[in-house]
Amino acid sequence: MSESEEIDDLGLHDNDNVQAENEIIDNRPNNRPSLKDKMIATRMALQGAVTNMVIDLRGRGDVPFNVTIDVVEYFKDVFEIIVDNFSEALKTEFDSFDLENVKAKVMDISLEFKGLQSVFDGFASEYRIRKLYENHPRFVSPKPIVIGHYHAIERVVVDGKLNHVIVEKPCIAQYVSIKKTFLSLIKDPLYLKCLLQCYQGQEGVYSCFRSGSRFTELSYSGRIVSCIQIFYDGLGITNPLKAGASKHNSGKFYFTNLSLPPSHNATLANIHLLAMCHTNDK
Which domain of life is it from (predicted)? Predict the structure, then answer.
C-alpha cells in the first residue's frame, strides 16, 4: 500500500482536514451573534463610556476644554496600544493554522477592533464636543426671546448730512424651556426613580412650601409635581470677577429642582440654565 493510500485510509487527507476545519468554524447556532453584531454593540458601549467621561469632565466646571481633549487623547493612545497588542497576539496564536478562512477571520477581527479607535475622533476638538451636545437626543437648545426694549443713538446720513437719531431696539435674551428641560431629565430612569422617591418631610413639621397642604394637593397619584428655586448670578465677560452692571457683562438665571433630596442640590448636575441676558437688561 502506498503512502497516499495509507493517508486516505486514516482519513488524514488535506482536503478532508480543510473541510473538517471549515465545518468546525462555520458550524455555529443560528442565534449566535455575528462578528458584525458584536462589534456594533462594542462600538455603542465604547461610545457611551467615552461620552459619559467627557460629560462628567465638562460637568465639573473647573476642567477646561483643552484638558478634556488631552484626557480623551490619552485614552485613545492607551486603547491603541491594547488593540495593537491584541491583534498581534491573535495573529501569532492562529498563525499555525494554515487555512485561508482562519487567517481571513483573524484579519477581520483585527480590522474591526482597529476601527473602534475612530470613536475617540469624535471628541478631538472643542467644536466636535459642542456638536456632540447639540446632537444629543436630550439636548435642550436655547431660544431667543424679547424681554424689553432700549433706546440707542445711531448716526444716519440725511441729504448728505450726518445726523443722530434715537431708535428703539429689542433686548434679546436666550431662554431654555423649563418644561423641555424636565422632559429631557425624566428620560433618565435613575433621575425619574430619584424624583418619585423624593423627600416628603416629617409629619407636622413645616420646612418649606412642599410641607404645606397646597403642594400636597397638587402631588396626587399619577402626577409628578416639582418645586424649583430660581436664582441669578452675574458673569463678567472680560473679567469673570467683575459681574457688576455693564453692557458687556452677562447675567445668568439658573434653577434647581428642590423636589430631589437636599444632597443633590449642591451638585452641578442639578443646576440648570434658565436664561441668559445682558446684565443691564435683567
Answer: Eukaryota
DSSP assignment of 244-256 equals SS-TTSEEEEEEE
Q: How far is CA 254 from CA 58, 194, 210, in A?
A: 17, 21, 20
C-alpha cell at 106: 483573524
Contact of 118 with 50, CB cutoff 8 Å: no
Left (φ > 0), alpha (ψ -120 to 50) or beta: where does 186 sit? alpha
Q: Are 219 and 248 in contact (CB under 8 A)?
A: no
Torsion over CA of 138, 144, 148 and 151, rounded to 10 degrees? 150
Residue with the three cell numbers 490619552:
74
In angstroms, what CA-CA distances link 234 with 130, 221, 249, 252? 23, 40, 7, 6
Amino acid identity for residue 4 in this structure: S
Query: HEC states along 35-87?
Result: HHHHHHHHHHHHHHHHHHHHHHHHHCCCCCHHHHHHHHHHHHHHHHHHHHHHH
DSSP designation for 265: G
